[in-house]
Amino acid sequence: MFIVKKMNFIKKIKSSELIKIISFNSLSVILKMGVGIITSKVIAIFVGPIGLALVGNFRNFVGTFEAISTLGFPNGIVKYVAETKEEETELKKYVSTGFIAVFLVSMVLSGLLFFMSDYWNELVFGSDHAFSFVFKTFSFALPWYALSLILVAIINGLGKFNNVIFITIIGNFIGLLVSILFIYNYQTSGALLSIIITPSLLFLVSFYYINKELPLLHFIRFSYFDFKIIKNLTHYFIMAIVSGIFSSVVFLAIRKNIIATIGIKEAGYWEAITRISSNYLLFVSTILTLYFLPKLVIAKNNIETKKVFWSYYKSIFPFFIIGVIILYYSRFLIVKILFTDEFLPVTTIFFWQLFGDLLKMASWILAYQFFAKKMTLAFIISDLLSLVLMYFFSNYFVSLFGVVGVVMAHAITYCVYLVVLGVYFRKSLF
User: How many domains does one find in the chain?
Assistant: First the structure.
């Protein structure tokens, strides 16, 4: 009897929607990590810590413009498409409004990038570097990338998780090929260009997959554009301003402070640990977006929300803890594989980064409730708090402890952030 029950339990686990998504997503993340290993190695060989610091600065700048260009709509579109997918008229309104609004805004931003390229170059890289052409290239790539994010959000809202993961997998392969080709031929310039070219190519992939689910060209009409929907999505734009723009500006300022205080190589070390961190955090964010966000959207009360929260902590989070421990004890091997011996000082900052990442993972599920329930003001206050803490703790600790200070600030910031969210959502948690 015990064996039968055990077998039924195992079958139930294997057949669950979460396990299916995690299993398929694991393949995507493994491929992403593989791509990240190869790309990081190529960057380390051809660019080095100094070039990596410049790449980090540009990535933060790109994040700012991407956040503005999408108006923060992707998370909102996931919510409203999920709610209206059975009502074709309403669905057309959300698809058309989101697509057209993002297209118009991204075109305006493209003009600013192109005609102010010299200004952006000095702001991001300083007068010692001449990368104005990179910003002009970004101006052409931005609209396609912004629209691809909207298409992926629509697919996600329709519940087609597998298609979203397929798009990610294909994007990884495109990113690998573009990165190797450009970095090998153009070194630092190539690394910068690969950041903006790869995402824009995803538009074609996203367009193909969305047309398998709905006739996109028939859904996008100016007659379906609805300003009421813009008003509904404004909450997400405000959230994107805080999380996308302010965070990019803060991290750019932190990196500039590291360069000014202790050197550009140390800024490259911080960028290296950030790249390692972002690879495995991708798994967490994808699971949250694909599975838990839609569940939080449809949760009707604290009891249902509590089930979603604790299903994450019980089924997913323990594996993250084990993974982080393995990463820490493998840190020397990881740095040698991903980078070169020149990056070995990165091993000294692993502990605080990984500890902070664990706290970040624990807090993320709570933070997603802000998006699910359009809790705009609470989100802004909590996110601004974390950014302010990160900025001041980083500057203070860097002056005392060097580059390790910035990862100490990361851990302390997310400790405070988790406590604040735990108190705020205590009724849904306990």
Answer: 1
